[in-house]
Amino acid sequence: MTTDPTNHDDLERRLGAALHGGLDRVGATSDLTGPAVARSRRIRRNRSLATGAVAAVAVLAVATPLAWSSLRGTDEKPFVPASSSQTELRTSSPTTSVPTQSEPATSTPPAPTSTGSATGGTGSAAPGTAVPPAADAVPASDNDAPPARVVTVTSSAPRGAAPDTAWTFDDTVTRDGRTTTLAVGSQWSYSALADGRGVVIDATWDRGGSVRIVDAAGRSVTDVVAVPAKHATQVAVNAAGTRFTVLVNVPSTPGTGAMITTFDADGAVVASKRNLLHAVDLAGIVGDRVFLGNKEVRRSYVWDLGTNVIDRYTDAGVVRAVNERTRQAVTFTTNADSTSGCLSVLDVSGDARVVARSCGAFVPTGFSPDGRHLVGHPIETDGYAAAVTDVLDVATGRIVLRLKGAGFLDTRFVDDVTVALGLVHQYGRPGTVSNLQTCTLAGACTQFVDAAPMSDDTARYRLARQD
Amino acid sequence: MQTPQDEDDFAAFVRARQDALVRFGYLLTGDRMSGEDLTQTALAKLYLKWETIRASEAVEAWVRKVMVNEHTTWWRRAWRHRERLDFDTAHSDTRPGSLGSDHGPVDDDLWRQVMTLPPRQRAAVALRYYEDLTEAQTAEILGCSIGTVKSQTHRALASLRTKLEEVPA
Fold it and tell me: Is residue B90 part of a domain?
């Protein structure tokens, strides 16, 4: 029987058949009742511990002003205690807030609002509350307004000069106009270190591998972390390229947790922590501090490398990126419906003061070097290669540039006014090519490499991480 | 849980619906074990709120909504893309439920292309064309408007249609 896949009804019919054909024999490998109950007890235990700790301090926070008021006489109005979120922030201490499995972090899992939000919690922004309470003093702009400039990025952009950044192509890396071959088995992510060195995640999802330092000639210098199979791995490098942090997350395996280690460029351990809860993302390094985010419980953490203590950081959302040069961090909190959220830009040099806020669909992923702009993507464009990249002006909270294309794999600023893009064109079609381009805030885009066909659905060009 | 009866009812619900939920998780994550893990997390949260949720008579919809929320927040990881590609490679020959001969290779391509859709599009497609939910029901689970469901589904179908056109006969 010949079918026409372009016919809408026929496609829908066949889609149903394909889904049933692919899924009907899939099922649970065992009875999930026991594991679900065990996991629920862990969630409840975590909440109880955290709630108890917060409640104790909250009592102090309330009792102290009341006692103070009573001493001053009844004609004076008592203090109004700080908001619950501020109280919670004060409660953070190394012993109660480290997200380890032995001392679990507070847990306020997202839950459907139609049937009630999660119980427990500690007074942080409830699911569905987009505005971080600690940031209320700063008015939020609306980033859903139409972008000031929209540019369509195509595979036929004019040739331009290469920016001052590193990139990889298959197993080669190009830095400072010089291309070298990396002596690694499976280069997944290259991050530039000082003195021409780099740190490479030499691993595959199925087989695992290692995180290793390579020298300027591409030779492997040392393995710093073994990556087991099916463990998500992230690397962040400080601005000077003299330190890097490796986070190895564990995919929800009871009894084990994430491991995070910071090394110097020679591979010597600066600090290390084990048994973190798995759902942590590495946002970046600022001086002696490493910033982490936990999207599940909507928390931000800071790891002090000097004391080797991880502590709660801010209530203004989940930290997504940092700018070590300007001492900024950006957080984002998603609404319950996952269609919008609010970002807060923080000054991390002091007390995590919120300096700017913006709400809408924009999800930040990185700063410009001068800290005046953020690059990111609309929240709806999830997936392998987001089709839209946005640039937001921190001061106004407005989208000043929208780049539209087939797919953006990597997007980051290479100077104050230029965004570098790793692109795939016509993703999913035979003959799809990928290349690297730059686009200025004025909307001028050029490509600095020759487009290359993709291999096994994987783009061969990738921008190196150069935080 | 207040009573043994509650425990029994919860266990009965899990046993009755766990396969369907794991299938949904599988479609969301593109990975069988991740799908089961996602299901377990959602069921754990259901257990904590069982007395409240069971009264709503929309228990399964609630669980699916938790799964979608969990997936969009918890599962965004750097390895996501590689995980999905590896799934395609590793499972393409052993995927359960081979299709009938009259659909064979073409629908195998269709299945593969479904797994390349962005997660929310894939979720919308799964709910509409696997679970046969209405747009309103799908919107409720995805926590978005009906218009968003329409646009996500439309984009998914358009993407699939484009990709299928490229499949050699």
Answer: no
ipTM field: 0.75
Q: Which of B1, B14, B33 to mutate to test the interface with A (most CBs of A within 10 A)?
A: B14
Residue B15 is part of which domain span?
Answer: 1-79
* Number of Cβ pairs < 8 A linking chain A and chain B: 242
- CA A18 to chain CA mean position, Å: 34
Is A21's CB within 8 Å of B43's CB? no
Residue B88 belongs to a domain: no
Residue B144 domain-assigned? yes
For each successive 10 residues of chain A (467 residues), what is the average pLDDT? 51 82 75 81 55 37 32 26 24 30 29 29 30 57 90 89 91 92 83 94 83 93 86 90 89 60 93 72 94 81 90 89 96 77 92 92 94 89 67 95 84 93 69 86 94 73 77
Among residues B79, B113, B134, the one where a domain terminates is B79
Bigger pLDDT: A65 vs B115: B115
Domain count, chain B: 2
> What is the three-class DSSP state of A130?
coil
Do B70 and B116 reside in the same domain of the chain?
no
pLDDT of residue B58: 79
Pair B39, B71 in one domain: yes
Task: Give the closest-approach CA distance of B83 to chain A in angstroms.
Answer: 6
Closest CB to A339: pick one of B70, B76, B148. B148
Residue B62 maps to a domain: yes
**Which positions ≥6 away from A195 have C-beta within 8 Å?**
A216, A241, A265
β partners of residue A300: A293
Cα pseudo-dihedral A264, A321, A233, A126, rounded to 10: 130
Contact check, Cβ <8 Å, B49/A26: no
Query: Does A207 lie at the interface with B, CB-CB under 8 angstroms?
Result: no
B163 and B108 belong to one structural domain: yes
Which residue in A120, A107, A87 sits closest to A298, CA to CA? A107
Q: B81 to chain A, minimum CA–CA distance in Å?
A: 6
Q: Which of B30, B53, B79 is the last residue of a domain?
A: B79
Q: Exposure of A267 by Cβ count < 10 A (0-12 exposed, 13-18 middle, 19+ buried)?
A: middle
Chain A residues inside the 8 Å CB shell of B22: 26-28, 32
Q: Beta-carbon neighbour count of residue A45 at 10 Å?
A: 12
Q: DSSP string of A283-335?
A: EEEETTEEEEEETTTTEEEEEETTTTEEEE--SS-EEEEEETTTTEEEEEEE-
CB atoms within 10 A of CB A430: 11
Model pLDDT, residue A103: 26
Please determine, for residue B57, whether its predicted confidence score (pLDDT) is greater than 80. Answer: no
Element (DSSP H or E) covering residue A8: helix A8-23
A71 touches chain B (CB under 8 A): no
Best residue of B38, B40, B66 to probe chain A, by most A CBs closer than 10 Å: B40
Same domain, B72 and B106: no
Contact check, Cβ <8 Å, B40/A189: no
